[in-house]
Design brief:
alpha+beta; 2 domains; four-stranded antiparallel beta sheet; 4 helices
């Protein structure tokens, strides 16, 4: 078996985020039950939304690390909780996309790997995206030497 190099750096969702999502799901269930008023649709809708929120929180518990970098390349999250290895040779670009609308600026880290595009937000990596992009670019440059 070919061992993977240990990551030089990795980024994960904030540790409190899955807990907040799970608490939000419980609050939805309580709200649905409190507002039942003889109507079965309200608790069913609240239960459905709570289940979706719990599934989202479970993903954060199962696969908290969203991005890792080492001298050989990147490891990114794929699908619900899978991982995909991207050697530096397939990484075409690392960009930080900033868009401002109505006074709110949104940032997205884009990793272009040819046939796939991987997008990460601030809440995915729990770090300033500018710093993450700089770290990735420096690691890519060091690997090219």
């Amino acid at each position: 078996m070919d061992p993977q190099p240990s990551p030089v750096r990795q980024w994960r969702v904030p540790r409190a985020l899955p807990v907040v999502k799970a608490l939000g799901a419980l609050a939805l269930i309580a709200l649905g039950l409190a507002l039942t008023d003889g109507d079965p649709v309200r608790p069913a809708l609240a239960g459905s939304l709570a289940a979706a929120l719990l599934a989202w929180a479970l993903r954060d518990f199962v696969a908290p690390v969203r991005l890792a970098v080492d001298p050989e390349g990147l490891t990114v999250i794929r699908g619900y909780a899978g991982r995909r290895r991207l050697p530096w040779a397939v990484v075409e670009a690392i960009r930080l996309d900033r868009r401002s609308r109505r006074g709110v600026t949104a940032e997205t880290l884009e990793i272009d790997a040819g046939e796939s595009l991987h997008l990460f937000g601030r809440r995915d990596l729990d770090a300033p995206l500018e710093e993450v992009a700089a770290t990735l670019t420096a690691a890519r440059a060091a690997a090219a030497r």
